[in-house]
Write a structure and sequence with these properties.
Blueprint (H helix, E strand, L loop, with lengths): L1 E8 L4 E5 L7 E4 L2 E4 L6 E5 L5 E12 L13 E12 L5 E3 L10 E4 L2 H7 L15 E7 L6 E5 H5 L3 E4 L6 H13 L11 E5 L5 H4 L10 E6 L9 E3 L8 H7 L7 H20 L2 H23 L5 H20 L2 H9 L2 H10 L11 H10 L4 H9 L12 H15 L5 H4 L1 H12 L4 H4 L8 H9 L11 E5 L5 H20 L11 E5 L18 H8 L5 E7 L7 H5 L3 E4 L5 H10 L5 H9 L4 E6 L6 E5 L13 H5 L14
Parallel strand pairs: 12-18, 12-19, 13-16, 13-17, 14-15, 14-16, 17-18
Antiparallel strand pairs: 1-2, 1-9, 2-7, 3-4, 5-6, 5-9, 6-7, 7-8, 10-11, 10-21, 19-20, 20-21
Helix pairs in contact: 6-7, 6-9, 6-13, 7-8, 7-11, 7-12, 7-13, 8-10, 8-13, 10-11
Amino acid sequence: MKVGKITSVNFNQFKVTVSTEVRGNSVNLAGVIYYFGNIGSYLKTTNSIGDKLICEVVSIFDSDMKGDTAAYDVDSSRELLLKPIGTITRDDRFNLGVGIFPAIYSEVNIVTFEDMKLILQTSRNNELCDKIHQSFYLGESKNLINYPIDISINSFFNIHSAVLGNSGSGKSNTITHIIQEIHKKKDNSAIGSRILIFDVNGEYRNAFEQHEKCHNLSVRFLKPNIEACEDGYEPFFLPHFLMNIDEWSAFLMATDATQRPFWDRVLQESYKFYMISTRAGDERQKLINYLRFKICNLLQTLHSQGDSETAIITAAKSIIYGIVELIKLDTGLASACREEGIFKDLRELLTSCTISFGENKDKLKNTLQTVRRKVNDDDVRLVMDYRATTEEFFDYRFLKQAANMALLEEDARGNGRIREYTSTMMTRLDFFLDNDNCLFMRNSPPNVSKIEDYLDWLWSSKCAIPSQTNMVIIDTSELSRDALETLTSVTSRLHFSFRKKLKGSERREKPIHLVLDEAHRYIKKDSKYLLRENIFEQIAREGRKYALYLLISSQRPSELSGTVLSQCSNFIVHRIQNEVDMNYVYSILPYFSDDFANKIKQSVPGEALVFGNCVAMPLHVRIKQASPEPNSENCKVHEEWFKTFPSLPPHINTA
């Protein structure tokens, strides 16, 4: 239906005079009411080759053609300013932008629901329409009132996406609704989906705990630092032995120059201490032989420093006492050392540490040579060449022993300031060993010794199909900042490392989507976070090739890593009123415009601007309310403040 005619054509806007026959702001076309008189509504015109040009109303005003007539006269000519958005070609394909502009006096018509179907039919495979679901319902268009917006599943989920907006603008509801909508579909249900949510605020359990509408959705609720199932949560574990040297260095705040090489040595020695404690037979003898070599080498280094014999003997006693105490910390290690004669050697060495008139008379030297002759150098080289991988299990309690042994070696070499250099790192190690905030890192699921075992446990992959987990929600709301960064980064890196090992078509099977709630807390754009080499930046750059995708949610896009945000191809932007955040979004997205900014600022909670690969053109959408909702509702202060005063119990005398 004709609305009016174009009276002026510019490269970025058209002026339209509304026909005097059209009254009001809406028309009835084939029984459907279309609204065109509101800002943001759609109209269309035609160019000289028959293409339909889709335009958006950006301004409405009254053209006062008669000097003596009031501007508000309803009979006067109304005019519209239109912004061209895209083109529906003659073969019914929609493209953003306009190639050939319309002629002056071209007719302007209503954009119908049929036109919108042509615009939004991207990535639809007609051959699969009767077999699998290809879209999900997001909400209703604010531009074309009452028109339902369906989003292509493949276009939205096969690339990284971002949901941005101020606190309370509806981000959690949007993510919840999308996931619920996917899993509510019947026939060919989404049992192949795998979604991992880092729930920083503890909001999502409420949305998925009672998911009767999503019959085939299997959800695990995990929480770190609990020792048994409680309040519907299972204990979450992130075994320390799966952490690599970069993650350890970041968690311990180790510097690259001194502390990182030191900690690398500590990790290797921890493996060896653990093996001495748990191995038997020839393997244990080789490891004990290595320990005996370490003790002798340590004391020989001390003896060769050229200090006075009194100083040497005093230091030797201290080292021997320290080694004995380290060994006694673990019963298995102590038992092995006792059976293999290490304690006997240490007693003999300690007995030889005597001074008579300032001289030791080579007693320590001779005893040391006797113990050294027990060492098999070939076996020592074998053990020294062994280098454990980051996926090999070891008991975390040996970290302290290995660290103290390494400090003793540095002391023996005369490096008197090593304890000063490593003091921060050793303090962080004590935090890891003793603080309840790190309990989830110290424990491990049963029968887990490598990445594959861990991921099988996390996703219940070895279970029958109906029992496999589609979604894992990890409640991290009670974690400290450093523990949160470690948990999110290491868990994501384990998934990335595993998928990088897949070959050929296996890389495209069983895709995983990581939902990063409050992502600005652990994907920062500066170096003020633990992991300087942020794994999320690597996933953002390379994850698509391995079917590992990010869905980022943040209220502070200005604090997010620019690398991560720039790799997102789909955006759902709720209300943002902070100018710093708006400018950051504006600068990082090349097709962002002032019109978008105005829509974002003026959106009410639940409304969002959607643009990117998943839609053919930017859409202002009222997102459907999730059911059940996430636990993100604001406190109703007036209801909490003003309550009926409770009556006093009858036995209380107020006189």
